[in-house]
Amino acid sequence: MLLAGGQGSRLGVLTAKVAKPAVAFGGKYRIIDFPLSNCINSGIDTVGVLTQYQPLRLNTHIGIGIPWDLDRNQGGVTVLPPYEKVGKTEWYTGTANAIYQNIAYMENFNPDYVLILSGDHIYKMDYEVMLDYHKSHNADVSIAVMPVPKEEASRFGIVVADENGQIQEFQEKPAEPKSNLASMGIYIFSWPVLRNALIALSEQEGCDFGKHVIPYLFEDGKHLVAYEFNGYWKDVGTLGSYWEANMELIDIIPEFNLYEEFWKIYTKNEIIPPQYISSDAKVYRSLIGDGCEVYGEVQNSIIGCGVTIGKGAVIRDSIVMQGAVIQEGAVLDRAIVAENAVIGQGARIGFGEALPNKVKPAVYSFGLAVIAENTVIPPGVKIGRNTAVTGRTEPEDYPDGELGSGETLDKAGVVS
Predict the structure, then answer these.
(1) What three-state secondary structure class fits 350?
(2) What's the pLDDT tens digit per position in 123-137?
(3) How far is Cα 247 from Cα 371, in angstroms, rounded to an integer?
């Protein structure tokens, strides 16, 4: 059961019109491709994807599951949005509430075990190994955990386990963590245990696994074990972590390798022509997607499919998503340009000192300039750092031809 209904509000304008799991990643993928690929690589062929916030692009991307070999008569992938019921009808109000509302779907398969996943993490993990661990420990619940720096532990659900992996205590975002083993939001439940817990907690408002189900089962004396994972795992929940995870793909020896034959990442591939790099173009240490036309200079950047980069344009340390157009002479420095945006001739995105954003300082930070999808930036303007721009903007929207660092320009009405 793959939870993919989240808004991802800390990604700002990138998720204004698209669910976080459907945000582009690594030039050709979307974030949900990673847990879906993990499923099929682990031998899991029955997947329910729970959607809610802005699901259209996510639903279109998943389709009937062909890229992941999940188009099957039995099992396969099923998209599970909230639906009207007799009596009480509600949106998904928490992770466990969403699973509870789909008990009938799970009962249809009468499983022995249910794997709960988040649709917004970047990692490779063999769930079959975790299931073997669950079985060998005769557990009711297995929680995937990974060590985190002690100073960051208060941001996570923290597990205290003995040397055999048995969980002694569970702390949800504690001020004083007793361990550095953080829950990854990946659970394996024995089906009867999960079913009974969901029914028992069905009246709990905003029922959540970390806050309600796990503590309830712990108090009930169920056998909970921690499965320690030591591979690469990234929660791309902020613009900074999203940018960093993309940039890590172009390291000389990337910690997260997209090129491993034995653990492929599958995605929906559009039918588009190969990339074209002109004789005048310069490309250094970057990923360039199919269908791109590059006439300018690209350094340390991730360029999505179908992007056009004009002559004399310079892109440094940036992410440019599919279909965007960077016109002649434009300069991008630590920018994130979303799908189908147009950056006008000679515009400069990302300049000056990184002042705090005046509207959402916790979101638009990390020294990044963020341009939303379908946004148009007129020729010759300058946009500073820790900024966000949305909509079809005009030259008169930029006093003295500039949008200073820390400013927000919202012509689409999505930043509030």
Answers:
(1) coil
(2) 999 999 999 999 999
(3) 18
